[in-house]
TrEMBL record:
GO terms for molecular function: ADP-dependent NAD(P)H-hydrate dehydratase activity; ATP binding; metal ion binding; NAD(P)HX epimerase activity. This is Bifunctional NAD(P)H-hydrate repair enzyme. The lineage of its organism: Bacteria, Pseudomonadati, Pseudomonadota, Gammaproteobacteria, Lysobacterales. Catalyzes the epimerization of the S- and R-forms of NAD(P)HX, a damaged form of NAD(P)H that is a result of enzymatic or heat-dependent hydration. This is a prerequisite for the S-specific NAD(P)H-hydrate dehydratase to allow the repair of both epimers of NAD(P)HX. It comes from Marinicella pacifica. Residues 10-205 form the YjeF N-terminal domain. It catalyses: (6S)-NADHX + ADP = AMP + phosphate + NADH + H(+); (6R)-NADPHX = (6S)-NADPHX; (6R)-NADHX = (6S)-NADHX; (6S)-NADPHX + ADP = AMP + phosphate + NADPH + H(+). PROSITE patterns: YJEF_C_2 (PS01050), YJEF_C_3 (PS51383), YJEF_N (PS51385). NCBIfam families: yjeF_cterm (TIGR00196), yjeF_nterm (TIGR00197). Residues 215-477 form the YjeF C-terminal domain.
Length: 477
């Protein structure tokens, strides 16, 4: 799996790469600039906007390459060459073309704008001249190519400061960062290309990544899963509990998704009144009614429990939650199941996977949603360590952590931002666990499968949860 590194890990990566290639840091900068230049869209005229560090240095080198390639090139330097240091100073010195120190008039004279303001060294929100430059770039009609990362986007977290360069294409050099694909990352990078400068991954073997990118190939495990000589009992017994009065749809979606994901026997637990309606909607699902706090539920044997979808927070909800959480069944905890967990101090040993969205994660960690989104990796890791389980933090660039390693999903779209898609995901995870996949594998496969189904449909508008379930099998063909 493709590793993702934080900014503090990029210096050792650069050093290891230079060492492997047997070149110095300036030659590495030249190779980086050449790699980015090769991905430049077709153009005659280009503006290269350079900042104070080595990202700007890449820009200066690229500008000289373009000049030698007979392009009409202009550098807009936010920092005068005399005030630059190290490789960036040398790159500016080597550039033989035209330079300006203020915004060029007529922004529409350029075919392409190269954003070389900030890379991994961005340490605060761009203000003053830098803010003006980013706003200028964003107003240009030209195609925008960002060197390494769009300026204003924080590589470690994917938080986009206001303003951030809105790139059409981003060429990441040597390594990718979590911020390229989680939180705001995918909204700003445009087409994302990684150029490793011909340095093999093993060169960084000693450097611990912050996360890994999940791959479509994970789903191959699913294609091999079923043996001829098997029966429904081979694929596990699953309980799906939730759906307080008026919320039957949540458990139906979850149970149906588990069914389509291949689980053997599925029983829904909902209110006494709603239980008879379950097989009417989906004959393959069995149902059990729970009347309330006085009712000691007879819990059927189960390999996995999925708890929380539409569960609510009433006395009925709490009583059901309490009985099931102490039943010692490996549990996928979702939605209101997580909110009830946030309200109690009890240990919850049976949780195998939890699937919070940022608001639920914020309740569990007793902080604000913006604190979760400010560092999604840290949030998911903290939860995984605290609850000793696999955590799936939903949102753009869903992150999965088992407390040891983190995995980010690069697929999916805002088409999934609609009611019930979370219930479907929980169902898929539980459905896979019931078939014997580990909690981590199930979370990884379900997240990828769920996201790829949205990409497969590519509606560009909301994909309803029921349609999502219907299209799931098409992705496995
Ligand atoms: N080190 C190397 O060997 C290589 C580095 N490369 C490039 O170098 C980049 C990293 O270079 P740097 O570490 O110099 O970092 P940057 O070029 O991202 O910028 C760091 C500089 O910007 C300043 N700064 C940060 N945030 C600011 C803000 N909001 N407003 C104003 N100034 C701000 C910092 O004080 C520092 O001077 C990479 O992203 C990549 O583009 C490539 O050339 C490949 C080789
Ligand atoms: K940049």
């Amino acid at each position: 799996m493709q590793p993702l590194y934080r900014s503090q890990q990029t210096k050792p990566i650069d050093a290891a790469a230079a060492d492997y290639l047997q070149i110095d840091s300036y030659q590495l900068m030249q190779r980086a600039a050449l790699a980015v230049y090769r991905h430049l869209p077709d153009c005659e005229t280009l503006l290269v906007v350079t900042g104070p560090g080595n990202n700007g240095g890449d820009g200066w080198v690229l500008a000289e390459l373009a000049r030698q390639d007979h392009k009409k090139v202009l550098v807009w330097a936010l920092q005068k060459p005399a005030t630059l240091s190290g490789d960036a100073a040398k790159a500016a010195e080597d550039y033989q073309g035209e330079v300006v120190y203020a915004a060029p008039a007529e922004p529409d004279q350029f075919d392409v704008v190269v954003d070389a303001l900030f890379g991994t060294g961005l340490s605060r929100a761009p203000g003053g001249l830098y803010q003006d430059a980013i706003e200028y770039i964003n107003q240009c009609q030209a195609k925008v190519l960002s060197v390494d990362i769009p300026s204003g986007l924080v590589g470690d977290t994917g938080v986009a400061y206001i303003p951030t360069v809105q790139a059409d294409k981003t060429v990441a050099i040597l390594n990718m960062m979590p911020g390229h694909i989680t939180a705001d990352g995918r909204d700003y990078c445009g087409e994302l290309i990684l150029d490793r400068l011909a340095v093999p991954e093993r060169v960084y073997a000693d450097i611990d990544p912050s996360a890994y990118v999940l791959k479509q190939a994970m789903l191959n495990l699913l294609k091999q899963a079923r043996k001829h000589n098997s029966h429904k009992g081979s694929y596990g017994r699953l309980l799906v509990a939730g759906g307080q009065h008026g919320m039957l749809g949540a458990v139906l979606l979850c149970g149906t998704a588990a069914l389509v994901s291949g689980a053997g026997l599925i029983q829904l637990i909902t209110t006494q009144e709603q239980a008879p309606w379950v097989p009417v909607h989906r004959p393959e699902l069995m149902a059990l009614g729970f009347t309330g706090s006085e009712h000691q539920i007879h819990i059927p044997p189960a390999d996995v429990l999925i708890l929380g979808m539409g569960l609510g927070s009433s006395q009925w909800s709490k009583a059901l939650w309490q009985q099931l959480m102490t039943a010692n069944i490996p549990t996928v905890l979702d939605a209101d199941g997580l909110n009830l967990l946030a309200d109690c101090d009890e240990a919850a040993d049976s949780i195998a996977v939890m699937t919070p969205h940022p608001k639920e994660a914020a309740r569990l960690l007793n902080c604000a949603v913006k604190d979760i989104q400010a560092d999604r990796i840290k949030a998911v890791e903290t939860l995984a360590k605290r609850y000793q389980c696999v955590v799936v933090l939903k949102g753009s660039g869903t992150i999965i952590s088992d407390g040891e390693e983190n995995f980010i999903c690069p697929y999916g779209s805002a088409d999934l931002a609609t009611a019930g898609t979370g219930d479907v995901l929980a169902g898929m995870i539980g459905g896979l666990m019931a078939q014997g996949f580990s909690a981590l594998q199930s979370a990884q496969m379900a997240v990828v499968w769920h996201a790829l189904t949205a990409d497969h449909c590519a509606l560009g508008r909301c994909l309803t949860a029921s349609d999502l379930i219907r299209h799931l099998p098409e992705v496995l063909i």
